[in-house]
Amino acid sequence: METILAKPNQTLFGHLNDCLTVCDELLDRRRDFLCHFCERYGWDWLEVKRFIRFAVWFHDIGKASDQWQNYIREEKGKITHSLPSFCIGVASLRLDPDKFEAIPSYAAMLAILAHHMQLHDSAFCEEQNRRSIDLPTSFIEEHSRRFQNFEPDLRLEPWKCGKLDLSDPCRLIDKLKGKIFDLQNARPFKALYSLMLNTVTACDGFASECINNQNSVEEILESIITEEQLADINEFPLYDNSPLREFKFDKEPNLLQKEILKCEDERLILNAGCGEGKTAAALLFAQKLMRQDKIDRIVLTLPTKFTANNLFRDLTDKYHIPKEIIGITHGDSMEFLRQLDKDSESDNESSLMSKEFQNSFYARPITISTVDHLLMSLYHGYKYADRAFFNVASSLVVFDEVHYYEGKTLNAIGVAMKLLTQLKIPHLIMTATIPTSVRNQMNRLQRNKDYPFLKAPSVIPNSSEPKKPFEIVRLNSPVFTEEGAISDELIDLIRQNRHLRKLFM
């Protein structure tokens, strides 16, 4: 039998072994959090893990078809492999679309189906897939036998069909669409599906990148990734969040920051003005939840690109968090990354595009984002939104400077807060001002449970003197002299107040 390829220079079994090696390393590193994540929604972690591994092993089996093998060798006549992979997986697990349930096995099948394109209502239509493909039954049987060795408790049905009409899986998908739309607990199921999709695509991408970096494309390779090689890797998708889990502040937490650490709730409103230490409070809150394995990362949202860029600099310069674990995503984030790395010889355009790609679905332990991108991640609004959905679900989501937003955006944030509440996703609202009417609306998002409300103390620490948020000083002379020079009075005023923030009007 001719060698079955996954890449021009790697066998299909080699690629799948590499993917599963990466998968096992990834799941092992995140085991404590993932156990807690499954507990949040009432799933059994060992069952979820078993079907994640199934999805990783079966996601590319459709590449074994004669038509796809001709494509990879001749680079023409491209044909889907997701559809046959999905169909083989469904048959192997003996799943019945008419009895669809929001359980890990069905989530695994949807992840296989979606690993190259996001699912939507017109995806995988029968009209676009009216052709037959030829499948090597002996190879697929061997493929299933190998997985039985990995997961002996998962009994698989042997695949016996040598020819597959791609219209058949399309009709299965149509049945599933109707069942999914009728689900009562669709959102928790989406979190499960997006966990599996995220893992499959991450492992597939990492394994593919490793084979692409091989010096020679002439030799047909088997597995090239070992557990030992992955042990010290700290890059996508194997990021280490310990810098956030372990970081220490240069000074003692203030009263506000101490109060947030006492809070037992996983969602709250923080009311504090500029300079009160809200960012440090958010980091401390995230660190606390991370140490409890309730989150795996933090997403910080802001209203503008400018404030997002400034926060990135604050995290690296003020809090000494390594920039390698911080992502940023907004309309001009690529340009920001380009400016940030202009002195780095190692970051070429391809590397910057890779960073931008990862940041778009919140892959890093910390991601700074404009709020519009977060909202799109929750409602299927861009190509990688489903991958982002799990990363959001595994985060503390921070809405900073909420006082900045106008009514329409504030309403959209309210809808997002309701979804986060329903999915039990920790979130923090930070604002300098909050009208009572707005706070009352937020409190109605969960029946009989208001948001805990923390307000910064209104007195100067260690005194009873009220805080003065700003002081207005009027100059006696014009800012500029007749010759166009800055007045001596203004220069003296700046010199006397170097330690303070200043605004000139």
Overview of this structure, please?
The chain is an alpha/beta fold. It folds into three domains: 5-230, Hypothetical protein af1432, CATH 1.10.3210.30; 242-455, 3-Layer(aba) Sandwich (Rossmann fold); 470-505, no CATH class. Helices cover 49% and strands 9% of the residues. It has 21 helices and eleven strands. The chain has helices at residues 12-29, 31-41, 45-58, 66-74, 82-93, 104-114, 137-150, 167-181, 186-212, 227-230, 242-246, 255-262, 278-291, 305-317, 333-340, 349-360, 371-378, 385-393, 407-422, 436-443, 488-496; strands at 5-7, 10-11, 132-134, 163-165, 267-271, 297-302, 326-329, 366-370, 395-399, 427-431, 453-455. Helix 6 (104-114) crosses helix 9 and helix 15 (333-340) packs across helix 16. The longest helix has 27 residues, at 186-212. The protein is elongated, with a radius of gyration of 27 Å. The mean pLDDT is 89.
Distinctive features:
49% helix; 505 residues; 9% strand; alpha/beta; seven-stranded parallel sheet; Hypothetical protein af1432; two-stranded antiparallel sheet
- Structural class estimated from helices and strands: alpha/beta
Task: Give the overall shape, derived from the CA principal axes.
Answer: elongated
Report the mean per-residue pLDDT as an integer: 89
Instruction: Tally the structural domains.
Output: 3
Strand order of the largest sheet: 7-8-6-9-10-5-11
CATH topology of the largest domain, by name, is Hypothetical protein af1432
Radius of gyration: 27 Å
Low-confidence spans: none
Give the class-level CATH name of the largest domain: Mainly Alpha
User: Number of helical segments?
Assistant: 21
